[in-house]
Write a structure and sequence with these properties.
Length: about 290
């Protein structure tokens, strides 16, 4: 029996919608053509698939059984079509990302390696920002998604997904500060090094110190974590560093208060229309 695939597809949409009119709208086919096709299919199969009246279109028992089998086939075919289209979109394209330094080193680089191995032809534009500047860049359309560390500013226009976390520690060289423990109030008597006041890190520690009735008053402010490391290694002070930046030349100094852990977020504009490559990148990052 040589029945065209389109006949099965039209039957599936009529049965799914229980309506010739809705099936015609979804398939962009005129209703008379839908009706003629179903009639031909019934003749070829020599069974009645639908019971019709003025108010509804219902499947016959034979039609119900036929629909169960046809729906599995149609769903698999449509899924395969979507996967092929997605693969085609992922053969070329680009993603535009904004990232804070901590997010880049802790979670983004491994994800980019995996993404690039799967989709080597996708171009990647990676912009390095502080958390707050990354949020501005996202809103101004300079990147499609951002991956940043907390704290962030709540905004109903943003969709925020937690993708990781990390812990900060107070560190210095072995020779700069000999003790292994320090009181928060004593810190200001030392040469405290920090990221600058426009960063999320500065806000995080400023808020933490205020909670404990003291001020966060760094002596040296720097733009990036990478710039802090040589200062610490040369005995120029003490600083809070995320765990992934601490090397063997530095020692942890216990603070008399608990330093809360921080989060890493993927953020995009709510209801944004992202391309296939960016959607696939988000899937990999959030798995």
């Amino acid at each position: 029996m040589n029945i065209p695939f389109d006949y099965y597809k039209i039957f599936y949409y009529v049965a799914k919608n229980k309506s010739f009119t809705k099936a015609a709208e979804e398939l962009y086919i005129s209703q008379p053509n839908i009706t003629r096709t179903i009639k031909k299919l019934e003749e070829m199969l020599d069974i009645s698939l639908f019971s019709r009246n003025n108010h509804a279109v219902n499947l016959t028992p034979e039609g119900e059984e036929f629909y169960k089998r046809i729906s599995i086939a149609i769903n698999q075919i449509e899924k395969a079509e979507k996967e092929l289209l997605l693969k085609s979109d992922l053969d070329i394209g680009y993603i535009s990302l904004g990232a804070s330094e901590v997010a880049l080193h802790s979670i983004l680089i491994p994800c980019l390696c995996k993404f690039n191995s799967l989709y080597p032809n996708i171009k990647i534009k990676l912009l390095n920002y502080t958390t707050f500047k990354a949020l501005e860049a996202l809103k101004n359309g300079l990147c499609d998604v951002i991956i940043v560390s907390s704290p962030i500013i709540n905004d109903d226009n943003l969709e925020v997904i937690k993708v990781g976390g990390f812990q900060d520690y107070l560190v210095c060289s072995n020779s700069y500060y000999e003790k292994n423990k320090i009181n928060i109030n004593e810190l200001n008597s030392l040469n405290l090094i920090s990221l600058d006041s426009q960063t999320a890190t500065y806000k995080f520690f400023s808020d933490l110190f205020l909670k404990h009735h003291t001020l966060y008053q760094p002596n040296i402010e720097i733009e990036t974590v990478d710039q802090i490391l040589p200062l610490l290694n040369n005995n120029l002070g003490i600083a809070f560093l995320p765990e992934m930046f601490i090397n063997e030349s530095l020692k942890k100094v216990n603070l008399d208060i608990k330093i809360p852990s921080r989060e890493i977020y993927l953020i995009k504009l709510a209801n944004s229309n992202l391309n296939a490559a960016t959607k696939e990148f988000i899937k990999i990052l959030t798995r």
